Amino acid sequence: MAKVITEAQIFACSQSTILAEKIAKDYGAKLGNVITSTYSDGEFQPSFEESIRGARVFLIGSTHPGSDHLMEMLLMLDAAKRASARHITAVMPYFGWARQDRKDKPRVPIAAKLIAKMLETAGATRIITMDLHADQIQGFFERPVDHLFASTIFLPYLRKLNLDSLTIASPDMGGSKRAYAYSKALESDVVICYKQRAKANVISHMELIGDVTGKNVVLVDDMVDTAGTLTKAADVMMERGAKSVRAVCTHPVLSGNAYERIENSQLQELIVTDSIPLRQDSSKIKVVSCAELFADVMRSVHENKSISSKFLM
């Protein structure tokens, strides 16, 4: 009679190995052995070096650019499916391509929907992710999606700062719901930035809705890419009399000249998670790990326990 594996097995995509090691340690398990073979033309093939037949498998990997990160997750899902894993959970701290969640002009793809279908076709039976760019992306899946909020990590950090005259700010209208949730938890005021873009990643105009005079402002957002919006917002707020400006952003994509912009900006501090590894160090960037959050949720999923507390702002 075949042996039934009851313990969950955790594996990492190469781009998230450091975070996966932290998650496995907090979970109380060893990270599984995966070997990736690479051909001279760049094609690669991941291989599980231990049996996963009948197991609950967690595959940890953020899908930030480039596209090889997504491809590696898809290949590992397919390999786990063909190796007869019983449950295959894609643990994606950062769900890439999420900004393409709708058609904002004719003849463009809805990439987030496509990625959801690709993950399911490859073999994912469950998705665990954090701070999706748009909540409705959960509806693109026909499988269960556990959408966690990084506020469970950031709120304790912000409370420890003990800032007087605290005001929460959203860098755009789309993030107002998140800003109001933080303000409710911290019992603070809210201000909103209204921006107009000339094109992607280029801001042509920004206005501030609300008063920041004499306030310690904390900007909250799901991700920081080029940091153009955050640094522009910080400049506007300091010009309007803010005492200090910090930013809390879940996913540090930080492309292009983002690090230079942050260093030269009036931001006092940028607080991020380790959902995406930083490309370089910065005196202004503070990393708060999301490993314990994911380990707790993975354990609850494996033991069929409620994880509703992790959904609360």
From TrEMBL:
Species assigned in the record: Mesonia oceanica
This enzyme's EC code(s): 2.7.6.1
UniProt entry keywords in alphabetical sequence: Transferase
Domain of life: Bacteria
Protein name: Ribose-phosphate pyrophosphokinase
